[in-house]
């Protein structure tokens, strides 16, 4: 898919910005604090209607404004769509070709954006919740069934935890809720297992290209119960074994909401043995990998890479752009970067102009 035009109103530092965009590699260039990341953030926002920098939409409003709007024009092969997102401090509205979207999941199907930012670098060394979020976001974009499953699972989990916290927990109700959790958990775990297997098909080659050297890597998924023919029996036993502890702590201690995955680089856990540079390149490969899983050229995602080159040496920068030149529409922010054949957007004083 291609973002052909974006119009911002009262977004971050931009009063009004209207840009026609290149379908290929674009460098968003300018001094620090000029507004480069704000533009990258707006492009990413049209995919999930949320910022990677803040969960509070009010901080996205230009000072003195009570509303903001992003109009985006997206092409998918012969199809063209106009997507408008309006939001204020307490409300949000999404319009697709002038009609209100019925659910948020419609948006990520129509505007799939992959994003890398410096804040992603600790992905493998940080909290498991960040790794689960990576799986959930990418799988929800790929499958509406997964989106519905994770929403249902979270609702059941909340109900079970409320029951566990009650003064006199109803054990019969807990058993019913546990059985329902297992019903939803089984397909969730299968989806995650298959997705990790798919990533492992493209990650080794992609990471080699980014590093410019021979390397081996493998993502290791750790489900709470192995997704095989005896899943339900073993899941039931696992919940029964954890019940007394769950009652004591008033919280469900096992399930997809506690799962994790790790990465082995050259046979060693990268979170323990990897350098910051190795972690950076591994996370970058992980973030770009979903692009190479999609076979339909018209449906391939838009890529947004914020400040990706700041910690890379000349050789790794060269390797990165060899990959990016094969990745369709890509936006990269940088203070000073010359890439032959790239389109440029110059950002200064909270204004942006396309150079070529």
Question: Helices, strands, pairings?
Answer:
Elements: E1 2-11, E2 14-20, E3 25-30, H1 36-48, E4 67-76, E5 79-88, E6 92-96, E7 99-100, H2 105-110, E8 113-116, H3 128-142, H4 144-165, H5 171-211, E9 217-222, H6 231-249, E10 260-265, E11 268-269, H7 270-273, H8 276-293, E12 302-305, H9 314-324, E13 330-334, E14 343-348, E15 351-354
Parallel strand pairs: 3-13, 3-14, 8-12, 12-13
Antiparallel strand pairs: 1-2, 1-4, 4-5, 5-6, 6-7, 9-10, 10-11, 14-15
Helix pairs in contact: 3-4, 4-5, 5-6, 5-8, 5-9
Strand order of the main beta sheet, please?
2-1-4-5-6-7
Distance N to C terminus = 21 Å
* Computed Rg: 22 Å
The CATH topology assignment of the largest domain is Glutathione S-transferase Yfyf (Class Pi), Chain A, domain 2
What's the tally of helices?
9
- Largest sheet geometry: 6 strands, antiparallel
Give the count of structural domains: 2
Elements, N to C (H/E): EEEHEEEEHEHHHEHEEHHEHEEE
Instruction: Give average pLDDT, whole number.
Output: 95
The CATH homologous superfamily of the largest domain: RecF/RecN/SMC, N-terminal domain
Global shape: globular
User: In percent terms, what proportion of residues is strand?
Assistant: 15-25%
Please tell me the CATH architecture of the largest domain by its name: Up-down Bundle
CATH class of the largest domain: Mainly Alpha
Low-confidence runs of at least 5 consecutive residues: none
Approximately how much helix is present in the residues? 40-55%
Main structural class: alpha/beta
Number of strands: 15
